[in-house]
Amino acid sequence: MSTYYGLDPVSDSEFIVSPEDAGVRLDKFLAAPARVGSRARAVAALDRGKVFVNGQQAGLFQASTRLAGGDIVRVWMDRPGSAKPRRVSSQIGDLQVVYEDEALLVVNKPAGLLSVPLERRSDLPSVSDQIEDHFRSRGKRRPLVVHRIDQDTSGLVVFAKDAQTQSRLKAQFKRREPERVYWAVVYGQPSPPEGTWRDHLVWDEKALIQKETHPRDPRANEAISEYRTLEAFRDASLIEVRLRTGRRNQIRIQARLRGHTLVGEQRYVLSPGTLRPINFERQALHAYRLAFQHPDDGRRLEFEAPLPPDLMSLLKRLRRE
Fold first, then answer.
1. What is the b/e burial string over 85-105, where b = at least 16 CB atoms within 10 angstroms of the residue's CB?
2. Whole-angstrom Cα distance, residue 93 to residue 97?
3. How many Cβ atoms from other residues are within 10 Å of residue 259's Cβ?
4. 8 A C-beta contact, residue 5 and residue 11
């Protein structure tokens, strides 16, 4: 198994909680610049079983634990069972390259960039276009799309370098084998704080949106997502959503159906006046984690992309309210 991150986290370290830090939440303590450096990295370390308090593993449900003076907090990034993270390999235009080999390419897409060109909007830039320009300079053919994320969603996307790789990767996605995890900021607090969303959706070709439909509708496609709350604020929540199916706009419509529209959402929204507006220029959705088997040798590849600056700023603002 190989794990790749957008940035190197702190090395294995132990920290003794000082009297000044007594009473501070565990995740806030970890997020300090001298430790892991951000709340997103703290949450990721807790999620992946790399944090211990006084010798006991601490997970996400212990993120809000108040520390006592003298507590020993260990961040064990090289814990057996996961490879040591590597640095980003390169940059292509606006794209951060998370991984590249002879068969495939994984990039961290910024919000505002299409995954692939649209016929009706050929003037808009895309990830595919930027990678194609990069390949052309190296005498290689154009990239082949494996899956997509929405234009205003940030995060991880994988492209193939040849038709056979594309076919094998697409087959994995069709069998629902890859691990696809998103982080989203939604209005309100989901209840219960974790669970499963199951819906039947139909794509409206005229309106270009997903709509809820009856299970007996012959056009219906089942949509399944597992969610959990990572952090709750006064009027919103940071949630993690793990896709079990990969319908277009799936998280956006499923959150909306439960009254938890994504902050910044423009299409799948509640009726006007029912929400206290939170200013954000796009839907607050990030493709945080992606894992699949390498199509050539079957080894498991795992990738994570930290939250981009605009989402980090949104979370800081929500924490102050």
1. beebeeebeebbbbbbeebbb
2. 10
3. 14
4. no
Q: Which of 27, 129, 150, 152 is catalytic?
A: 150
Judge whether 150 counts as a catalytic residue: yes
Cβ atoms 243, 289 nearer than 8 A = no
Same-domain check for residues 258 and 245:
yes
CATH for 20:
3.10.290.10
Residues 246-286 have pLDDT tens digits of: 999 999 999 999 999 999 999 998 755 666 889 999 999 99
Helix and strand numbers (H, E) in the chain are 6, 17
Number of other CB atoms surrounding residue 79 within 10 Å: 16
What are residue 56's DSSP bridge partners?
Answer: 53
pLDDT tens digit string along 123-147? 677 888 888 887 776 666 788 999 9
Structural domain range at position 169 = 90-177+293-314
What residues contact residue 306 under an 8 Å CB cut-off, 6+ apart? 5, 6, 7, 38, 40, 41, 44
pTM over 0.90: no
In the chain, the number of structural domains is 3
Task: Please name which of 164, 145, 138, 152 lies closest in space to residue 107, comparing C-alpha atoms.
Answer: 145
